[in-house]
Amino acid sequence: MPTQTPPALRIMSFGAGVQSITQALLIQDGTLERPDAAIFSDTGWEPQGVYDMLDRVEREIFQPLGIPLYRVNNGVIQDDVLNPNKMRGIPGFTASKPYEVEVVDRWGICPDETCGWRKLRAARADTGVMSLFTIETFDLGDMDGLFEFLHLIPLGAPLSEVDEIAAQWAPPSDLDEDDYEDDDCEDDYLAATRIAAAVRQAGLDRVPGPHDICDSTGLVATASHTEIRRDFGMLNRKCTQTYKLQPILEQVRLLLGGTVGEGKVCRYCEGKGERVAPWRAKRDETEIAECSVCEGTGTISRVGQPPAGVWAEQWIGFSTDEIGRVSNRGDTRYSRSRYPLLELNMSRQQCIDYLNTRGWGDVVKSACLGCPFKNNAEWRRLRDTDPEGWAATVAFDKAYRDAPGMNHQRFLHASCLPLDEAPIDVKQAREWKASTVTDQVYAARLALADEGDPDGCSPYACRSGSAAA
Ligand code: SF4
Ligand SMILES: [Zn+2]
Ligand SMILES: [Zn+2]
User: Fold this and answer.
1) pLDDT tens for residues 191-241?
2) Interval between CA 241 and ligand 1 midpoint (Å)
3) Phi and psi at residue 30, in whole multiples of 5°?
4) Which of 237, 244, 410 to mutate to test the pocket of ligand 1 (most atoms within 8 A of CB)?
5) 8 A C-beta contact, residue 169 and residue 156
6) Structure pTM?
7) pLDDT in tens, 321-380
């Protein structure tokens, strides 16, 4: 960690949201010293209001103070995500296609009177011993302990064999009972003795053999119905890292004197600049497209490390309510985080108040238009205040549905319904959870949405980012 020498540069990570504009104004009024540069990482998918605000800050604050604003990017996220030749993703919600399952409403005993499982069940209905047997008839592959042992008792084994196995695992007479309790052998011993007792009680001389009619359970379904089900999930994402943190750090290295290395031949496409993406080739697809690694250039050149000992102080605009997001995860050999708003003990609300007094009351939250982390209030606000952005996001959501090679479908809204059909007028749990306001008329909810989920997508803390100590 660079602590010995003073920083070569002070660089402000500028997200164009409430906190970072507050920082810019605090620089303007002299509360904070003037940094050497500001960096905005552009996913290419911000609401127009964010870009407008960025232009205004550059024009009215940065330029007069002589602070250069670097706009960096690592592609256009919404295009990349839909590009089958790129492996880029956002944290979308997933759902399997609907499928039918048979659900049993009522069980009856096996109709075959000679069935040993039926006898066993009748004799020991209330002991739970049946579960020991029935599980044994299922897949043993991923079972451990008890089941490994149970398959040592073959179906149809004579009682004498079960007794032998039980004896093999019996607790040694000189062993303290407490010691034995920790031992796996105890389970095996108990299981074998219980099985032997159940078989005896049912008047059988052996463990019943396999029985197809009842699937060796002693039970058959006598009434059932079909249900339509879907399985739900959420995709992993590295988008914050890829589209925000990475390009910022690259720019920081450049500013600190890191140089662009000599281009090496791209080994992913052997310098051709195009290829069949390996994940597509796996699916026997043959379409040749631009190599996503070298972006069609056939060569790869990276920005190298800055000279040893040269480092930058990286300003990150966390307010006091975001203290749980503070982490030095983003720190590197050449960059170290600083949190000016925390030093000033400013909360998000204080930032908003300050912005209002300075005539900057209409700051839009910075986050991708179609970010699946939006809550309903945010979706409503997009729909109701930015019809163009909404239409584009609805179109993206439709195009996003099916991913090649993926069984599940992808959705932007948590309900796993198409965005324009999703119940975004319902105030959902995650809005309630984050909001201090419990009931408001619709318009007021919209106004309060900022309180509901205050944090945009910061390069230093994913919106879902887990809190750091
Ligand atoms: S706003 Fe959402 S989709 Fe965009 S980079 Fe951040 S987490 Fe990813
Ligand atoms: Zn049976
Ligand atoms: Zn390549």
Assistant:
1) 777 778 878 888 899 988 888 998 877 888 899 999 988 888 888 778 988
2) 9
3) 90, 0
4) 237
5) no
6) 0.71
7) 888 888 777 788 999 999 999 999 999 999 999 999 999 988 888 899 999 989 888 899
Residue 117 phi, psi dihedral angles, 5° rounding: -65, -35
Amino acid at residue number 442 = Y
Q: Give the whole-angstrom CA distance, residue 272 versus residue 290.
A: 9
With a Cβ cut-off of 6 Å, ligand 1 is lined by 43, 90, 237, 239-240, 243, 367-368, 371, 373, 457, 462-463
Q: Which residues contact 58 (CB under 8 A, 6 or more apart)?
A: 69
Contacts of 453 (CB under 8 A, 6+ apart): 373, 374, 375, 377, 378, 430, 431, 434, 463
User: 400: part of which helix (H) or strand (E)?
Assistant: helix 387-400
* Domain ranges for the chain: 9-95+236-261+302-452, 100-229, 262-301
CB 367 within 8 A of CB 462: no
Q: Report residue 256: phi and psi, to 5°.
A: -85, 0
The whole-angstrom separation of Cα 434 and Cα 415 is 19
Class of the CATH domain delimited by 9-95+236-261+302-452? alpha beta
pLDDT in tens, 116-136: 888 887 776 554 444 444 434
Tell me how far apart the alpha carbons of residues 277 and 271 are, in angstroms, rounded to a whole number.
14
